Structure formats: C-alpha cells, structure tokens
Amino acid sequence: MKISGAGGSKGGTGRFFIGLVMLIAGGYLFLTSIKITHRFNFGYSIYSFGSYKFTTGMVLFPMIIGIGLVFYNSRNLLGWILSIASIAMLGFGVISSIQFRMSGMSAFELIMILILFIGGIGLFLSSLRNYE
Question: Which pLDDT value is given to residue 37?
Fold first, then answer.
C-alpha cells in the first residue's frame, strides 16, 4: 500500500500542516484585531423612506400588537405578518448598525499577520499539488 501526501497527492504533508498552522494563527490574529461596535438604540433611525424615518421604537410597536394577536388567535394572519415582519426589520436594523474597525497596531504587526495568513494559504494550497 502506497502512502500519499496531503489530499491524496504527492505533495508534502509537512507543508500541509505548517500551512494550516500558519493559516489558523494568522486568521486568529487578524480577527482579534478587529473591534466591533454598534449604534443601535431605540431612538436610532433604522429605515427611511424619503424624509420619513422609522426608528426602532416604531418597529417594536407593531411587533407587540402582532404578538398579542398571535397569542389571542394563532390562526390570525395579520398577527403573524406583523410579528415576522417586525422581527425581520429589527434583525436587519441591528446587523446594519454594526461597525467594524481595526485596532491600532504597528506596521510590523500588520505585516506579520498578513505574512502568516497569506503565507499559510499559499503553503496549504501548494501541499495539495503533485510534486514529481
């Protein structure tokens, strides 16, 4: 029985694992350097139609009515539509209010993170090629 390298190819298994470790380390360092903030509050405008703006409080009111209608009569179509539409609008509003920022780092740190990440991808993918 012949033992082949990574991915069934004649590529290097060592390159595979070194690339995988570099890829994971670089990805971890890159993702931990991203800071996530939001600006979601009840006075915040999540949707606007022309000059009219919908705030999160305006979306919560139909959701409360819809939930009340569903609990009163579970076959009430208007209650289900109000509830599902309001929950979807709130979900999209929360997601759209998220802001991503890179934390302060030196150029050396950024270059090292990119070398680990991109170099890991290169080593990982090159280990899947056949070497004759």
Answer: 79
